[in-house]
Inverse folding.
């Protein structure tokens, strides 16, 4: 038997099982958050939606910080994670706009291009190897994007708003990928709660002025929805961070694509969105390419 295929020690196997369930739970939580964002994004400006998400996220993570007490972050930690926070703002605003303009499943399928861009940026910034398998994955992901957009053109459903939505979804995948590449340099140096805290507090500060310029006062019901969105964001990211601390990224990365199952179900039940064959076919290509990229040797 090959050494790589040897059974894992029971303790390690148990940790990886827990990591798998934590990752699945985190993905499910963030998928519900996305559905709630799509709901409020239809009534409020994108900058306000993003601002409220990070304000309530900040309140939630500050409670966690008070309990965990990880200590004050260093200047380097604040600087690097502050730069990541700018990318987080760009990711959130483009993704939230895409949610307001496209069906939930289409937006999420296009966001699955992120692992492809992570491979490209990892090669450009971290000097990681870009082999034929990765290049094939890049081609599959790009083809999937064309299938989804082309399906809307063929069906006459690609309006100006949905075209901008598709472009925003792809842009969010690029900025998310860059943020994740930068995170790799900090994950082993900074406490998880510190990273998540800066990922919420700094974007809230950045978005304060843009949100004020387009502000629409939310009613009591929507204020509660914003609070739930912020708390779900914190819980989802903490679950994923715990999972990635226990298991290899390559082992957990394919689990991210279970979000598409949640997107199809939530979109159908709450928004009456039935995914087209083009969406499903394009998503299959994107997911297939991303799985190949995440399992490269």
């Amino acid at each position: 038997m090959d050494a790589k295929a040897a059974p894992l020690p029971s303790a390690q196997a148990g940790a990886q099982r827990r990591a798998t369930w934590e990752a699945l739970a985190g993905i499910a939580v963030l998928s519900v958050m996305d559905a709630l964002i799509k709901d409020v994004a239809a009534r409020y400006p994108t900058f306000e939606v993003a601002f409220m998400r990070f304000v309530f996220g900040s309140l939630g993570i500050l409670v966690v910080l008070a309990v965990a007490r990880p200590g004050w972050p260093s200047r380097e930690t604040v600087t690097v994670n502050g730069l990541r926070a700018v990318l987080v703002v760009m990711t959130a605003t483009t993704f939230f706009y895409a949610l307001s303009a496209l069906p939930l499943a289409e937006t999420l399928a296009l966001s699955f291009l992120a692992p492809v861009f992570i491979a490209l940026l990892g090669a450009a910034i971290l000097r990681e190897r870009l082999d034929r398998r990765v290049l094939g994955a890049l081609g599959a992901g790009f083809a999937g994007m064309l299938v989804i957009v082309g399906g809307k053109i063929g069906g006459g459903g690609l309006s100006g708003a949905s075209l901008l939505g598709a472009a925003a979804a792809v842009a969010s995948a690029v900025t998310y990928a860059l943020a994740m590449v930068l995170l790799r340099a900090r994950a082993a140096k900074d406490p998880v709660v510190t990273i998540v805290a800066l990922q919420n507090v700094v974007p809230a500060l950045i978005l304060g002025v843009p949100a004020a310029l387009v502000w629409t006062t939310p009613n009591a019901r929507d204020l509660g929805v914003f609070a739930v969105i912020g708390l779900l964001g914190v819980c989802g990211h903490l679950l994923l961070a715990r999972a990635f601390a226990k298991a290899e990224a390559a082992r957990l990365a394919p689990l991210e694509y279970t979000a598409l199952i949640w997107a199809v179900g939530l979109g159908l039940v709450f928004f009456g969105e039935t995914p087209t064959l083009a969406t499903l076919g394009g998503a299959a290509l994107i997911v297939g390419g991303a799985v190949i990229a995440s399992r490269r040797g």
Remarks:
- Residues 17-294 form one domain.
- The longest helix spans residues 10-41.
- The chain has a mean pLDDT of 82.
- The chain has one domain: 17-294.
